[in-house]
Amino acid sequence: MRPPRFQAASSFHEDLKGRIKNYFLEKNLKTTGNFSLYFKAIVMVLAFIGIYVHLVFFTPIWPFAILESIILGALTAGIGFNVMHDGAHGSFSRKGWVNELAGISINFLGANVHMWKTKHNVAHHSFTNVDDHDDDLNAGAFLRLGPNQKRYKVHRFQHRYFIFIYAILYFYWVFFTDYKKYVTKKVAETPIKKMDLKEHVSFWGFKAVHLFLFIILPIYMVGFIPWLVGFLIFGLATGVIMSVVFQLAHVLEETSFPTPDKATNKLEDDWAIHQLKTTANFATKNKVLSWLIGGLNFQIEHHLFPNISHIHYPAISKIIKDTCREYGIPYIEHPKMRLAIASHVNHLRHLGRG
Ligand SMILES: [Zn+2]
């Protein structure tokens, strides 16, 4: 299946790029991360290591162990959102090796950065909400996330059980879909960039590191059943947090699910307008949430400028919003996270019923 094509870039996109470029020139700012981002990265990584060591080597009594397993899951998602995501987009630092290092954090947590770059930077960012191309829309037969997907009877209840599917995302990703991508050499319809020997060794080497750090060593230290309970809680917490944050940005009542024209294989908009119709912001005034989830509540800014670090999104969002208003282009946002969740649940309910 050939990748769909977009319409030629509109004057809106050119104008917007110019305004954002001027903002960084006028303020004399780099588009990459700054001290506050590196400080946050260090805090999150040290907190992760501290809690991991406490859980595995100095295991507290079970109520605290459960709480720490949930926090470890939240920190896994947090490192993914704040460090790995910017690193893999090349926006964490001006230095290539720092971005590489930030991206590799995902390998220590069980997934693989090479696969991620194809799944996220190419498939998801290019063809947002386009079936068969955006792998984030693919939950198998378990969930009907877009109106162009086949409906099964079980989907009638998907607005009630979706959270259980989201919860298994971490396990499904780390233990199944990474290997599926490795074997099939593609993500949905997007081929994975050819892996050289170094990348093959890195793939298997890091999978072995993950196996040792998250399974073998903890079982040796705390025993099988305590490990199993802790690992399940950790993985389920990671899965729920990651899925919810990503779904609230795209899979909503207000966003579009465009299909390419059958004859021309072209989508109806240019790339930038496509991003605006398929992406939404939520709770952008919530500074704590923005800090924790790496600015992924500013998904519009992220999708239009994925190579700009998330620390700049609050500042550039005003320019983007004003430009959209001038050109009469939608800028979808939910002021509160609970409203975005309600929209996501309603979307699932409607798609489950017809
Ligand atoms: Zn991204």
From TrEMBL:
Domain of life the protein comes from: Bacteria
MF-aspect GO terms: oxidoreductase activity, acting on paired donors, with oxidation of a pair of donors resulting in the reduction of molecular oxygen to two molecules of water
Example GO BP: lipid biosynthetic process
Alphabetical list of Pfam families matching this protein: FA_desaturase
Listed name of the protein: Linoleoyl-CoA desaturase
Keyword vocabulary terms for this entry: Membrane, Transmembrane, Transmembrane helix
Residues passing through the membrane, by range: 37-55, 61-84, 96-116, 161-179, 200-221, 227-252
InterPro entries per UniProt: FA_desaturase_dom, Fatty_acid_desaturase
Record-level GO cellular component terms: membrane
PANTHER family tied to this protein: DELTA(5) FATTY ACID DESATURASE C-RELATED, FATTY ACID DESATURASE 2
Residue ranges constituting the Fatty acid desaturase domain according to the UniProt record: 62-333
